[in-house]
Automatic annotation (TrEMBL):
Organism per entry: Cellulomonas oligotrophica
Official protein name in the record: Transcriptional repressor NrdR
Cofactor detail note: Binds 1 zinc ion.
PROSITE patterns reported in the protein's UniProt record: ATP_CONE (PS51161)
Pfam families found in the cross-reference section: ATP-cone, Zn_ribbon_NrdR
Family of this protein: Belongs to the NrdR family.
GO MF annotation terms: ATP binding; DNA binding; zinc ion binding
Domain ATP-cone: 46-136
Cofactor: Zn(2+)
Gene: nrdR
Amino acid sequence: MHCPFCRHPDSRVVDSRTSDDGASIRRRRQCPSCNRRFTTVETASLSVVKRSGATEPFSREKIATGVRKACQGRPVSEDDLALLAQKVEETLRSAGSAEIDAYEIGLAILGPLRDLDEVAYLRFASVYQAFDSLDDFESAIAVLRAEREDAERTPSPEEPGRG
Ligand SMILES: [Zn+2]
């Protein structure tokens, strides 16, 4: 990487640190020619392929914005949304692909959103999966109920007071 000040074709890394979430590395570099310092940020590229075929960089903020609408009036905080967006990004990155369909993002949102708030999950799923009748809601709710009953049969040790 060349120096942005004098365009010397080489630079030396003087410091390198990973961001808290592990998604990027910041490198402090020094130019051996003019001795000025600059910073580069390295991230694995992750692009979203939209329905139109256009691509755009993955954005946690967009995930949070999309989910925030489904969470209106629900006890979901901005921290919850940020954590959900982080989980979604981790899921997508662990798939190892540099390009992901917008549809896959919706899928990756459904799991953590269901854990967060079932009402918000149903709202989001109804838009994302294009529910067009009460039957669609009923079957989604039936799945939630069945899974909740499974969970109650084997109570989690973190919730000893339950039941
Ligand atoms: Zn330089």
